[in-house]
Each structure stands twice: as C-alpha cells, then as structure tokens.
UniProtKB/TrEMBL annotation:
Methyltransferase domain residues: 59-157
Protein name per UniProt: Methyltransferase type 12
Record Pfam families: Methyltransf_25
Keywords: Methyltransferase, Transferase
Source taxonomy: Bacteria, Bacillati, Actinomycetota, Actinomycetes, Kitasatosporales
Domain of life from the UniProt record: Bacteria
UniProt-listed GO biological process terms: antibiotic biosynthetic process; methylation
Length: 276
C-alpha cells in the first residue's frame, strides 16, 4: 500500500521555494554578479545535445530564478519563456532579464504551476521545451507532466530533459556504494531539512517539502505515451554537486567517483521529438 500524498504538498513546496529565492539570489552558488557579467549557467553536455538554438523559440518549465532560461537567450534563442510556480522566483528572473537588456519579447517569465503551463504561457507551441536538473522530483504525476509538456512542442520541435539520475536516491549518502532505498518507491518523501543547497547554513523557517522519485523508465514511458519520439537517453557519470562524500571535484567542475571505483550514472538526459 502506498502512502497518501499530503494534501498540502503544493503549498508546502511553494512556501519553501518562495523563502529560498532571496537566499539563492544573494548566494555565491548562483553568483548573479558573474552571471550578469556573462557567465553561462548551462552545462556543456546540454549545449552539445540541444544544439544550435539560434532563431528558435524555447520554453523552460520550472525555471526557478531564470539563469538557464536567460542563458538560452544568450545562445541565440529568438524568444524564451520561463515558467515557475514561485512568484518571487519569477520576479527575480524578470529583474535579471532587465539587467541583461533583454526585452519581454526576447525573455518573458510566467508564474504558474507546471501542470497549468499550456494555459499560462503566451504561445501555444515552442521549438524547444526544456526542463533542467532538480525539477521532476517536485511533481507527483509524470503522465500529466508529459502530456502538458508534449502539447507545447511544435511540430518538428523537441523536448529536452536533463536530470539527476534516480539511482542516486537509492544509495547511501556517505559513500554511494550501498543500496539502502527502494529504486521503485512510489511513496512521497517528506523532508524537513533546514537551509538550502545554495547555502547550507542559511536560517530558514519553511523547511517542510514533499518530493517524489521517478525511475528513468517512468519518464521515458510517460513521454512516449504523450506522443513524442525518444531520440536518445544518455546517462552521465558526473554530478553537479557532491551527492556522496566519496565524489571528487574535477577540473571541468563536475563531481565523479575516484578512478578506482566502478562508475554508475549520476545524471541523465533525454531528447524526445514531435514529428513535423
């Protein structure tokens, strides 16, 4: 029997993210001054796999404060739209767009739930629908997400997903070498950890959140059911942060296991297209 989803899951998650927006905006982790000066927020494998975005429209679902969204605009996307359920996050993203000299025609941000994206965004379809790392764990219903995202992909366009691999949630935090949690768990995970990944020592009040683990097969199947064609599923042996104490930071900025340890996937990416 599965544990029921708390009725207030969306409100709890929104309160947590609303509180953390100013902490993130002021943090060294996001380093908005460096971003304003030209630092790219996108990962190299994302740029390679998505390809040239010049002249293309792009929708970013669950965009947080908009750094990835605005980076796609810097890479030549003709029109980018970021969507997030946190009003403070959207306000911060809009201010950043102004700082970068991007008009609303080039970069727009919308405050709305990901499930309501089709009704909330300004256009009915986009050449590229993008969702970045750490997004899917906040959604209980992947079929509904996939249907919504797929409906916004223009004919001949594609959806691109970059995510942390769910296998990493099955392993012990200290070494990442022992399976301690069920990979196929469907129960919501309620967390009450204070602080934030961008500032572990930050004083926070809204610490309760509800998250879900989605196996890779569930993600791929949801996208296929929604009518998209899976172009690739790539698994990556690197992470963006030291998920386990045994991970080591490399010169390229990624974290990997030591060379004498067997590798496992720490991240994955998917490209799924809509026929022209």
């Amino acid at each position: 029997m599965y544990s029921p989803t708390p009725e207030d899951w969306r409100e709890a998650n929104r309160a947590k993210w609303d509180e953390r927006v100013p902490i993130h905006a002021a943090s060294e982790f996001y380093d908005l001054d460096a971003f304003r000066a030209g630092k790219d927020a996108l990962r190299d494998f994302e740029l390679a796999e998505v390809g040239d975005v010049t002249g293309r429209s792009l929708l970013h679902l669950q965009c947080h404060i908009g750094l990835d969204t605005l980076s796609w605009a810097r890479h030549g996307a003709s029109h980018v739209v970021g969507l997030d359920f946190s009003e403070p996050a959207v306000e911060t993203a809009r201010a950043l767009a102004v700082d970068l000299g991007l008009s609303q025609e080039r970069a727009a941000f919308v405050a709305a739930d990901a499930y309501d994206a089709a009704e909330a965004v300004p256009d009915s379809s986009y050449d590229i629908v993008y969702t970045g790392t750490g997004a899917l764990c906040w959604l209980p219903d992947l079929d509904r997400w996939a249907e919504t995202a797929a409906s916004l992909v223009a004919p001949g366009g594609f959806l691109y997903v970059a995510e942390f691999h769910p296998l990493t949630d099955s392993l012990d935090d200290e070494t990442g070498s022992r399976v301690v949690h069920d990979y196929f768990v469907r129960d919501p995970w309620v967390d009450t950890t204070p602080g934030t990944y961008a500032d572990l020592d930050a004083v926070t009040v809204h610490n309760r959140s509800v998250e879900w683990v989605h196996p890779v097969g569930e993600v791929v199947t949801a996208l296929a059911k929604a009518g998209l064609r899976i172009e690739f599923l790539h698994e990556h042996d690197a992470s963006l942060f030291p998920r386990y104490g045994s991970l080591q930071r490399h010169e390229d900025g990624y974290y990997r296991f030591p060379a004498d340890r067997p590798r496992i996937p720490l991240m994955y990416s998917i490209k799924a297209s809509r026929p022209a």
